[in-house]
Amino acid sequence: MRITGAVLEEVGRTAPYAGSRPITISELELDPPQQEEMLVRITAAGICHSDLSVLNGDRPRPVPMLLGHEATGVVEQLGPGIDDVKVGDHVTLAFLPRCGVCAGCLTDGKLPCEPGTAANTAGTLLGGGVRLHRDGRQVLHHLGVSGFATYAVVNRKSAVPVPAELPEDIAAVLGCAVLTGGGAVRNAGQPKKGDDVVIVGLGGVGMSAVLTAAGLGNGDVYGVDANLDKSAVAKDLGATEVYSPEQAIAAGLKAPVVIEAAGRADAFETAFALTSPGGTTVTVGLPNPAARAQLSPATITGEARTIIGCYLGSGVPARDIPAYAQMWLDGKLPVEKLISAEITLDQINESMDALAEGRALRQVIKFD
Question: Looking at the domain 178-312, which fold is it?
Answer without folding.
Answer: Rossmann fold (3.40.50)
